[in-house]
Amino acid sequence: MDLGQFDDARLLDQFAYDLLLGDWPRAQNRVKIANLANGVPPYDESEVESQKIVVNVNDLSMTRVQHDARAQFYNGILKPGKFFSAKTDAGPAHKRSQWNTAHTAAVNRQMKRSIGYFEALRSKFGLLTLHGISPAIWENRERWRPRAIGVEDALIPSQTLLGFENLPFFMVKRSFTGLELSKLALGAKPDPGWNVPMVKACLRYCDDALTQLWSTQWPDMWSPEKWAERMKQDGRYYASDQCPTIDCFDVYGWSDEGGEEGWVRRIILDSWSVPDGVAGARLSAQRREKRPRKGGGSGADFDGENDFLYSSGSRRVAMNWQQIASFQFADLSAVAPFRYHSVRSLGFLLYSVCQLQNRMRCRFNEAVFEALCMLFRVKSEEDIQRALQVNIGNRMFVDSTIQTVPAAERWQPNAQLIELGIKENSDLINQHSSLFTQPQHFSKDKTEKTKFQVMAEVNNASAMVGAALNQAYRYLEFEYREIDRRFLIKNSGDPEVRSARAEMLKAGIPEKYLEPECWDIEPERIMGAGNKTMEMVMAEQLLGMRQLFDPEPQRVLLRDVVLAITDNLDKAMELVPEKPAQVTDSTHDADLAMGVLMQGMAVGIKTGINHIEYVEEMLRQLIAVVGRYQKQGGMAPPDKIMGFQNVAQHLAAHIKIIGQDPAEKARVKKYGEVLGKIMNMVKAFAQRLQKAQQAQAKRAGAGNGGLDPKDAAKIKATMTMAQTKAQLAKQSHAQRTAQRDIQFQEQLKHDKEAHEADMAALDLQAASEIRRQRFSSLEDEQ
């Protein structure tokens, strides 16, 4: 747009009220949805009076839907330990992981600690589920935390597409207190765009309003001591409840005039409520005739540039609209192209059915009350009066002039209807209380539902909210990117930004890389799109596949499972930290065995250990040692080559044990491939060593006693092999001897136990024989 259009306060004022009038029908729809969600009864007063409605209550069905939907947003966005991860591809590759961790931790720590940002997110979640649009604005160019505003305060032109690619300008309705306006325009380092004379005139208006005894504290005005205390307490009254606000339109417009693209800013006073005595902000005669302004005084037309409370002139305050405002959408509309004013929220789509359910329940309860009524047959108004005096109870009588209805003819309450009504109300109470208790899913025959049935119901119930949450994740990325950009501003006036930036510098990130262009932002997502049941099912499935992942992803997976079960990030980090707190027994045993094996000695297979950790630790060390010799010219001494072969045989035994689990076939195959590559390098070492020895023998010539170098090499190789075999045979013999000794000791122990058992059996047999003989003697004597 032409900058000239933003220099005409009257034109901007007209634009503002055109947008307000265009938004009026949409605002009426929004208030209906909000009232239903806030528990307002479904029938208005006129309907209650004209239709003689007895029951007019809200069953809170819409309220419950909104609570459930917001719970998924809370779970999906606030539950993870961080809002987003920052990654860079700048600088040395071996430093990037450390920088990514430091950057992410420094920024997210400030964001997690901010109660203001937490409340801003809560406001956004409520607006997303209710109206599908959640706007927020940044109050200045340095403060990182955006402030949530209402949908009605963001004035967007019609036909604006989602993504704002055709957005020429937009406005934000704002109401400044005197204290806020004073800080912005008259505080330390104010923006030069503020119209200071107009600001002071607005502040004088606030002072005059208070001194006119509008405040309930009016006696304090005539006491200097109390006046001073009130000024200190209320910030010179500007923050008190009695102080009027300065209502404005904050206008942002895109311009490419002068070859520079960006957004300019203007602030004009709301012409319907321009305060008295504010020069350069007066009402036009036409508008003044339609509606009196705040304060009730007379006014005149706009008089030019002095009508702006703030103006950036031709200076661009932002390069794109994301640096001014943050918009998130949970749009469930089915018609494309998707437009801002065509957004259909969960509240909009469920309004009709929830309103219908409310009215149906009201009628239902009226029918229940009617069924509980007792009927009398009367002939005149006098009979009615007498019937009203009848007290039905034990040992009572009825006036003979009243014709009671016989038992066979009188109105019988519909017991089934009453029972159904009571049951419906009980079920409704249980449904609402299920927000705080775990509901039991039972089918009609009181049998527990299957896992598949529960999953199907959960998927159907959360389909719309899940789609809206995924959309919100995408728009959150733009907000997070802007927040991170503000955290990288050098010499920022925001203390939280300075603290985070200092933490990043302390972690070793060079200042030249603390630029927005060096970092990519990725929102942190949670399993199940915020649905607890879906999250648990996914966690269970991934836990069953845990052994297929590498060790480090296994830790991440296990931490996510603990988080899904406990909903407690601190507990999850305590149970599954980022890195193991100490060396495990398996890795420690592998470290010790590696040294023994490299010396050519044998190490027995230990049971009861984590064979996966053992193998991976030994493979890591074997790769490191072989790699070191590879870098030194691809040569290794004979004893090291023998050690490598010894380690490979030992690893093969452990890998065979892991292969006994059918689920570990992929892991065993991977270990075999890695070990095969290592041994190919070891084989190359042996070949190079043999060639070197042959060359040395050939150079030695006569030193070998006239033998052919090839024959000398063969003899030496044969001797080396013989020595190796002898050493291995000796070690094998020692192991076999030790095993035989252990078997002999076990056999002696077993024989001793068998002998003791036989002796005990003989003792029992002898005792039994003696006892039998005694009984026989007694019988003979008798």
Q: What class would the helix/strand composition place it in? A: alpha+beta
> Globular, elongated, flat, extended or rod-shaped: what is the shape?
flat
Total number of strands: 10
Largest sheet: 5 strands, antiparallel
For the biggest β-sheet, the strand order reads: 4-5-6-7-8
Mean of pLDDT: 76
Cα(first) to Cα(last) distance is 133 Å
Low-confidence stretches: 213-229, 235-239, 279-305, 432-445
Percent range for helical residues?
55-70%
- Count the DSSP helices: 22
Oligomer: single chain
Explain this structure to me?
With 782 residues, the chain is α+β, with helices and mostly antiparallel strands. Among the domains are: 351-433, no CATH class; 531-581, no CATH class; 585-706, no CATH class. Helices cover 56% and strands 7% of the residues. The chain contains 22 helices and 10 strands. The chain has helices at 9-37, 45-50, 61-78, 93-113, 115-131, 178-186, 196-214, 224-234, 285-290, 346-371, 381-388, 415-433, 451-487, 495-506, 532-544, 551-566, 569-575, 585-598, 611-631, 638-658, 665-700, 709-781; strands at 84-88, 133-137, 147-148, 154-155, 169-176, 246-255, 262-269, 308-311, 325-329, 519-523. The protein has a 5-stranded antiparallel sheet with strand order 4-5-6-7-8. A 3-stranded antiparallel sheet has the order 3-2-9. Strands 1-10 form a two-stranded antiparallel ribbon. A hairpin with a 6-residue loop joins β6 and β7 (262-269). α3 packs across α5 (115-131).
Please supply descriptive tags for the structure shown above.
782 residues, 22 helices
